[in-house]
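Researcher: Last one for today. Full complex below.
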Amino acid sequence: MSDPNGKHDELIHPVARPFLWLDSGWLKSSMIWIFLVATLGFVAVDFFHHRHEYVDLAEFYGFYAMWGFGAFVLAVMVGWFVIRGLLGREEDYWDGDSSDEEGQS
Amino acid sequence: MIEALYDVSPAWPVIIAGLLAAAFPFHTARKGLALIAPVLALGLWFNAPSGDHVGGLIELGGFTMETFRFDGLSRIWGLIFIIAAFINGLYGLHEKDRIADAAGLIYAGAGLGAVFAGDLLSLFVFWELTAISSVFLIWGARNNAAYKAGLRYLAIHVLSGVLLLTGAVIRASETGSWAFDETLSVETLGGFLIFIAFGIKCAFPFLHNWLQDAYPKATITGAVVLSAFTTKLAVYALARGYAGTDQLIWIGAIMTAFPVFFAVVENDLRKVLSYSLNNQLGFMVVGIGVGTELAINGAAAHAFVHIIYKALLFMSMGAVLLRVGTVKASELGGLFKSMPATTVFCLIGAASISAFPLFSGFVAKALTLAAVAQEGHWMIWLVLVFASAGVLEHSGIKIPYFAFFSHDRGHRVREAPVNMLMAMGVAALICVYLGVNYGVLYELVPFPEAALHYEPYTFDHIVGQMQLLLGAMFAFAFLVRMKWYPDEKRGVNIDTDWVYRRFLANTLNWGHAMFGRGWAAIGNVLGAVRRRTGGKLFEVFSPIGALSRDIPSGLLAIWTSALLAIVLLIAYLAP
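Model: Here's the assembly. Have a good evening.
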């Protein structure tokens, strides 16, 4: 059922065909700029409109964008270096059988 | 309205259907029960009298059990449990497993029974029934890891039930009350034990790992069913008994944060969802800890929408597991070309849990965050905003991106079965519907007036939320571009389960081995002592022993002399 080697386009679902551009290289390389522009766009709103927040700190220009960026980077770095670095083990660590880690019906 | 049915809890038709399913050998009949029973339960839910109602009283050994308490809190939880039971039934239509069919229904019914329980003894009965019935959804995977995980799951949940009963008995002996209400307190021993019992089921920090251990090893449908009931029942129990308990605020905040780090590097996407579930529970627990009307509304609304979008995400991963045979992120990618409908449904679930505007998570999570900020818990608020970005990382981006996009692994599989698509479609529809028509949700919460005064779609809220989400998405794109995002690779990350799966297990094995060796050593020493003593006695007292050579009548003569001496001594000393 799975073919990891080929690109059997005839097997692609008809509904998915108009959306194959989602897999294109230019889109993947452009994502960083798309998100950057979108983020800056919403940050720019803060310069024209004062947001009223329950927490004073959140009224700072672009607070949420910075917090979101920082939180994401922190989560990834701690996950990568602390969790995987210190707590990561081989797949057969528990019972010596890696296939057992996945439930089947 | 049918008055004769006022006292019938919606739990009963579902439990009875489960018992019948256990007896029915016919697949079609069982599946009919799985769909009809939630409909009957929904009828009873609608039929319940308006206003607070306590009914379904059962006299048992001089004790009156209340099986149907219908009020603002149980109303919303009961409804979402019924909806979840129906969606689960639809999702599992293709499976032909009598035990799983029966267990799923009994489990859902027990969850409903616990929600509608009016006293702690009734709660205990249904509490334990959820544990016993749900373990079959794990064992249904029929492999060694699932069997062991099921045993661990059962042990932990039975322990929760034992603590609940012990706490209830202690409290009843002190106060004479079995009430399951806001009078519970962590300040008393009984109340504290009940709190820990709820905390185990709610996956409090350090008590949480049964969730990530068991759920990913359950059957495809089992994981979906499990995601709906157990933990949300615990959230309900906390809301019922411990609203406004300050300790819950920090417990909940920690719950929102720590699973984020584990989810980032987890390769099994159903395990990622399990950590994500833990994170979402944290928001609800914080809301309960804050305890204001708005915060309780937030917890209830969050539980409602969470059950739907979490089930949707588990369903989409279940469909991937069914078709591809794995949900390891390292083995997936490009599945949108084969499973476009599943992809869309997963994206809707991801958008909902990430709280994008127009999706259900946005209107629910906002209540809790507003309540936390209003009460001046700004540090907690910052943690929750951090956790919101974390949710986007693991459930909003990681799940759909690595399963359906990312590197095309060449999997060309069939789309999910029709019944799975229908179940996902219903869940997705609810996610969008509640995100847009949030008034329907706000009317269901325990304090509708407080909720209806809150407006989620303000310009400021939308701008702030979009800043947060886009800032986090930019961070993802940035880290990927810089190759600073960790590769998805096969492996496991040990968690608190290491304590009982490795440390305690090894300690017990070591203790058992040491006990065995020690016992053998003691036996050897005792044997040697016995042999040496016996030998010495034989040398002294036997007919050929030393005494026999000097004393004519041997051992008998010695005993006779000794007894005579004792008698003489007593006679001499006696007055």
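Chain A touches chain B through 74 residues (CB under 8 Å). The CA atoms of residues 94 and 101 of chain A lie 9 Å apart.
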